[in-house]
Amino acid sequence: LQSWSAAWHVGDDLQVNALIYFFALFTLSSITLLTLQPACRVTELCMCQSSDKTSLLLTASQHGHTEMQQAERMEYNSFMLYIHNTIIGVELPGFGHLDYSFIFSKGVTLLSTIPIVLTFVMGGGEDDSDAPSG
After folding, report:
1. DSSP assignments along 49-82, one per residue
2. Which of 29, 38, 62, 120 could form a disulfide with 110 if both were Cys (CB 3.0 to 4.6 A apart)?
């Protein structure tokens, strides 16, 4: 990490370097999260319960008022129970199912950790032995 830090070092002004690092990390993080947006859309098409959107769950539930035989009704109810209780969509190993709340929560986490990472990269985490002890 220090060699990467040296490659982006602009000068002795730590504030300028910190801003450059922040915007570089912010841009890379944003691009990464935006590339996951199509996968979140697939999950939304499967599981969205909003009445103004189209999803597998809502489309299947619209057929509940159709007249059915008892065996058909039991199978329909089993199917509805399954899709209602099972998360359907894109799953990223190690992270879980992708949806827009996932992107938002990871974005907030990245924004809150970037300053911490910059503190260590910029040398703010070093122990100052010259500091007066109180």
Report:
1. --TTS--HHHHHHGGGGS---HHHHHHHHHHHHH
2. 29
